[in-house]
Amino acid sequence: MEYNKWIADLQAGDEIEGFYLLKSAQIKTTNTGKPFLAGAVGDSSGAVDIKIWDYSGPLGTQDEGTVVKLRGSVSEYRGALQLIISRIRPAQEGDSYSLGDLVPVAPIDASEGWQEFLELVESLQDPDYKAVCETLLEQYGQRFRMLPGGKSMHHSFLNGLLMHTLYMARAAVFLADLYSEVVNRDLLLAGTILHDVAKCREFLTSPLGLVTEYSVPGELLGHLVMGAQAVADAARERGVPEEKSMLLQHMLLSHHGQPEFGAAVPPKCAEAELLSLIDLVDSRMEIYKENMEQLEAGQFSKRVFALDKKIFRHQ
Amino acid sequence: MEYNKWIADLQAGDEIEGFYLLKSAQIKTTNTGKPFLAGAVGDSSGAVDIKIWDYSGPLGTQDEGTVVKLRGSVSEYRGALQLIISRIRPAQEGDSYSLGDLVPVAPIDASEGWQEFLELVESLQDPDYKAVCETLLEQYGQRFRMLPGGKSMHHSFLNGLLMHTLYMARAAVFLADLYSEVVNRDLLLAGTILHDVAKCREFLTSPLGLVTEYSVPGELLGHLVMGAQAVADAARERGVPEEKSMLLQHMLLSHHGQPEFGAAVPPKCAEAELLSLIDLVDSRMEIYKENMEQLEAGQFSKRVFALDKKIFRHQ
Amino acid sequence: MEYNKWIADLQAGDEIEGFYLLKSAQIKTTNTGKPFLAGAVGDSSGAVDIKIWDYSGPLGTQDEGTVVKLRGSVSEYRGALQLIISRIRPAQEGDSYSLGDLVPVAPIDASEGWQEFLELVESLQDPDYKAVCETLLEQYGQRFRMLPGGKSMHHSFLNGLLMHTLYMARAAVFLADLYSEVVNRDLLLAGTILHDVAKCREFLTSPLGLVTEYSVPGELLGHLVMGAQAVADAARERGVPEEKSMLLQHMLLSHHGQPEFGAAVPPKCAEAELLSLIDLVDSRMEIYKENMEQLEAGQFSKRVFALDKKIFRHQ
Amino acid sequence: MEYNKWIADLQAGDEIEGFYLLKSAQIKTTNTGKPFLAGAVGDSSGAVDIKIWDYSGPLGTQDEGTVVKLRGSVSEYRGALQLIISRIRPAQEGDSYSLGDLVPVAPIDASEGWQEFLELVESLQDPDYKAVCETLLEQYGQRFRMLPGGKSMHHSFLNGLLMHTLYMARAAVFLADLYSEVVNRDLLLAGTILHDVAKCREFLTSPLGLVTEYSVPGELLGHLVMGAQAVADAARERGVPEEKSMLLQHMLLSHHGQPEFGAAVPPKCAEAELLSLIDLVDSRMEIYKENMEQLEAGQFSKRVFALDKKIFRHQ
Amino acid sequence: MEYNKWIADLQAGDEIEGFYLLKSAQIKTTNTGKPFLAGAVGDSSGAVDIKIWDYSGPLGTQDEGTVVKLRGSVSEYRGALQLIISRIRPAQEGDSYSLGDLVPVAPIDASEGWQEFLELVESLQDPDYKAVCETLLEQYGQRFRMLPGGKSMHHSFLNGLLMHTLYMARAAVFLADLYSEVVNRDLLLAGTILHDVAKCREFLTSPLGLVTEYSVPGELLGHLVMGAQAVADAARERGVPEEKSMLLQHMLLSHHGQPEFGAAVPPKCAEAELLSLIDLVDSRMEIYKENMEQLEAGQFSKRVFALDKKIFRHQ
Amino acid sequence: MEYNKWIADLQAGDEIEGFYLLKSAQIKTTNTGKPFLAGAVGDSSGAVDIKIWDYSGPLGTQDEGTVVKLRGSVSEYRGALQLIISRIRPAQEGDSYSLGDLVPVAPIDASEGWQEFLELVESLQDPDYKAVCETLLEQYGQRFRMLPGGKSMHHSFLNGLLMHTLYMARAAVFLADLYSEVVNRDLLLAGTILHDVAKCREFLTSPLGLVTEYSVPGELLGHLVMGAQAVADAARERGVPEEKSMLLQHMLLSHHGQPEFGAAVPPKCAEAELLSLIDLVDSRMEIYKENMEQLEAGQFSKRVFALDKKIFRHQ
Questions:
Q1: What is the reported pTM?
Q2: Contact C216/E76, CB-based, under 8 Å?
Q3: Which of B154, B307, F66, F217 could cross-link B286 (Cys pair, CB 3.0–4.6 Å)?
């Protein structure tokens, strides 16, 4: 009996026990009319199909996305492994397991990252932009820190939005200095910090924090417009001058670069233009990274959906 | 000496006096170094170039878009008429002239139109949508009633926005009834009433009320986003439930139909889809009307910029 | 034994008898070499897979799309229901069943709709446009009345083309009045009445009247060009002046609005422009309706193919 | 006094007399109120501005596009030549001049070309396709032989449509042989012969035969649809089987290759696909030729409008 | 026992022996833990699934794409045929079978085609263009002669590139003569001969010569750029003047016609323009041919991926 | 008499003498037949029209783009200034003037910039990438250092290409560090250094070094392909391994990001993707800078051609 063995390491014949994420679960009926549960469990290393024979509950579809403790044996079925479960129960308070083992988590030290992020906010010289950032982080901070960057395209792991925003902020600080003649550092940095903050309202998340779906306001308004409204409200509350509020709203509304990519308005000042490019840089570099991890040197990928092309991992 | 003769009726040799709109005015210098004013005056029938010899002020560029009283004689220069002005002064309080003779005005009875418009608001059964409409009309009503629908594409005359919205509202009421199985009449009608209300902030206007330019918030935020924010604020103030506020915001944000035509989000409910189509119907019919007035039966127009094609006036 | 039980109401264990539509039928061979028939039957409420063991005919692929009388029992196989048939025969003259129970039919009273449609034709004041409409309805009327509006996108049920055309005609009458300064009511209405009439030649239909495929002339010429030719021929036969014939042909040739959506020429007069927009309005409202019927309030659909987006059903 | 001197050879100081094409003519008034005529005359070598002082008619705008006999002297005005005319009259019956000297004419022997064209029609083995070609050439032949291929893009000279069709037919015959496994020679050749025949109705022409404008049916129906209708009518008259008529109509309807380039339907058989490509080949080669004649070896052109790029003339 | 029976002719119950292409092969395990091989074999007429029970080698995935000798019996499984193999071994030296029976081969006499191709090279009058062609054929000739034209779109059979190039060269010679005023025959012909020569480096091929994948340089540089570099190197080696080298490189770089279709630069001389069109003509005619072979007269195809439309086979 | 007065400071009545750039010059004839020269002179502050009366040479069109010494007086003509020149001669050896006063020069210290650039090359750790950079800088270095970045879009001043490349290299070094998990610093930096090096062959320049036109190889091959060939040749000469040569070529070939923006192949490795984005960042920031210098705070620009939108200069 092996304890919390990685899914990726399972082999036919293994007897295992431990905590796993219940990814899907459906009560079905055999040809002979007996109930059973079919579904899948996973950890951050992968996933495996499960069966629980003669089982009609209490676990079922309503528990997808939660942690379970299980015992079972691994066999092979039609060329793939499956896990036949003999005991299963929901995780309870007091159980001891590591969330980071069960769901994908950003490859950064989240505490340090969050600290650096707060220092970047602190570094804003302009009291108005700083005030808006502070107000919005008070509202959204805790969710913002944990949220993935998206559902599947890139950064779709816990702390993903923090990681994405942090890398962009580092680039923003550097490029604001390189192009200081046209770029106001504080406007660029504040825009970068807040550009995706309304994803906190745009996404629905599973119990463990992964993005499962878009919310109704996410679909009807979008995170660009919701972000701009949040900026407008915060600016009003903090007494920020109208032009600064408008510029910061413009940063958020235009950060997808072009209307056909979702921008509510095209970027019309240098900081907005640069923010949209930094967003492209960071998301593309992460897409390359996530896809290149699957490749060996000298090999091309299959067509990467988010880039609409194959990519190459050189030596 | 003819008084307030229509510009369109001027002929070489005419001596005229009256009130006209000073459309452009620039102080220049002749080859021999003498100052003169070159520019144009107009009324709702057309425009004509002017010259004032030996003139260095007080009228000049700063007075473009205002009404002047003038006296002058009409001659021909290089195949076109021009008006040589002998006396000119700004219109003053107490002068008696009709604004409608000087600038283009919508071909509707504006009072009746406004009355009908208020009755349409009144006809809303849903107290929430009605409350938002009332609040925004309190804020923007007077400007909304006078504003042109745009700078040059269509409805670019006084009361143009009222006329455009009124025609759309009539169509909305009819189509809400025809498609009552999928369309909530009050959501569609409220969305129609408010869809362009933020043009009141998007446009800058001349002293006589014509659109001269986009405002800074108009360029940076656009009337779709500003309208949605105004709805959000009014809804909050009036205690409107969140979902209704969101739906009404969605109507405004999506009314350009597609991102490449300026929609911040694509329409995702039947009312939003229909609003975007009614907007197309009314603007295209008006473009046809304004262009067909220039044509004789059996004739094709030149390429119409707003439609990117030639149009035909049949018998 | 239940008689003509709705497919949607079947449960494992049911014994049924009645008339159903044979949707597909294929003679196959078991591993042990015995012939059997596998396929599906349906009614307007849904469809279910069938098996007839030890069966090699006479029914088979050639009977798809016809009505059969059958007796059988319902069981469950791999999580879905299937109907094991013990007796089956083609429907015969004298059998009594309702077509409307077996295939989807437009949710309108077809007789009243047809009556209203004929009155709309009758309402045409212009004798030339009226003559062309009458001639084409003589040729195509019976097929036109029954034909679906299409294969699967929208209105794909019996009387669908009539319903689509009728709703458009109602909108046309209203909008011709609203925009009477630019729109000739009779040209718009005649164009609306005839715009899809050549779908009668474009579609192939099953024995029960549903669209199965495009015809060869449908693929090579399309219903726009075929419709225009039919108008040209009818106009010549009825002595209609050339310009009117041409205008009516132009209405049909341009009613898809833009070349990339299939228009042979872009609309160049106000009536043609408006017809293309009314077509958009009615088809989109029907797509919303058909898709929203599958949704609960507060829910988003999956991506709707015909709209290329998800849609929302609000409260 | 030089007689019929080429416009391209004129120099300041020349005294000339002869027949020229009156390209434009407008009666104007000098500053001192005297009437004069300003316009331009041309021959196939070029054009020059004209002035006729103290002239109020009878020649004027209504005579544009006709031939005049004139006498005048050449001078320079603002860096360009102009011709001051002392005598002018319309050309009369009995005057002797060569049309080919006055308007651009295709660089082919038109009689031989026409003969070859008729032989190509004669070479059709399929009696049905041949019958349709014969019928349409009876209707349109004389105009077809003289008509330019277009207004300005390419082949915009007399006999231009014949030349374009003839070159395409030569290519069609060759390629039908090369791809005889997929291409029916007679269908391809008949489609090629007829593809632009309805330009005879699409274009309006000046008295000398150049294209001045599109006709009303040209704008509302287009030469593709008009050509297909002419084929349909001819086929019916000559008893051609329906499928052949349909295929030939399809050739004409699809010969612009793609809807966005004006095709009413996309090509769906090999002959239609090939016809659209042969049309591209011949029109592009002629555009290169007409533009390269303006260039010296080793030189790039300005941006060529019809190709949207610069082209190169190599050694 | 039938020998080398065509796959397309197999029927349940056949006992066969012969040489076939091993298209895929994978060692798997039954539910009871026994090894077996599942895969497919094919010849130029088609392919069939195979099973080898109780088999763990030596044949396996590493032998895909090679020829095997096998004996087996045909049965039906889930409605499709499968071949249960009792004996199998790799083809050996000395075995006698025809490659053309096992893999698709161009429907031309490859020796005659190659001879004609060499004569076309020989026909070049310009010693410089000829020298470059000769040099590149020395380098790539043998591979060029055998290589398919592509992986799956068209000409994806042995000698396919030769066939494609040969047909294009025939068209080039004819069209160079037809448009001799703008086209240099030798530049066009040399460009045609060499346009795809670098596909020899762009493609990876299976042991039997079919294209399996793009090479790394094929993906990173593409055959247009690699071809141009090969021309540049050959021209330098053979002392060809710079302008001629450049023109020939331009032919190769631009032969996809437009940047969005892969051209590195757009065609800017008449020969380059014509080459890109000839390439379109030949590839489209071949796509029609390959797809029409699957159709009966009067029938439409399914959507053809390479053309994005359905095509028609007429009588 | 003022010496070398800035063109931007001229006023009617000024008498000036000094060195200026002859921007255009054309010998013309007055109405009375006398020769004169019309053209323009400029310095880095602007340009002014010139006239030289009674002048037929020796200066003329052939001297455009060279420096002249002139004396003249400033007057006003039709509302604009013009300079009537009384004496003019070409600049000679020994004349003393500053080139930087006459043509626009990059706002960097070119010596320091060049030094920094060389140090960046020196910083390459990879001996192969370094070798290729060194070889190409030996070939192109002197021209590269002086060349503008383009003709008019951005960086169209002396040392513009150096400035553009230098800023990009700074960003490349920073971002290679930020994304070190996916980016090879030396490949990115070498690609950045060389990405536009072939503009040295693509542009033709005036005597003073400004870009006047594209060269023939520039038009037929483009700087992407020429750069890749130069890399291939240098790599072969320096014994660089094939894969590294190929990767570096790929960087150059793909640096326009997408085929429709001129990329010969799309970027397929992380370094190529990043290079194309850094190029976008630097060119857009410079476009903003050059356009914002024309604006006052709070003002929008006219539509900027290179961005296809208006831009805003905020406080």
A1: 0.90
A2: no
A3: B154
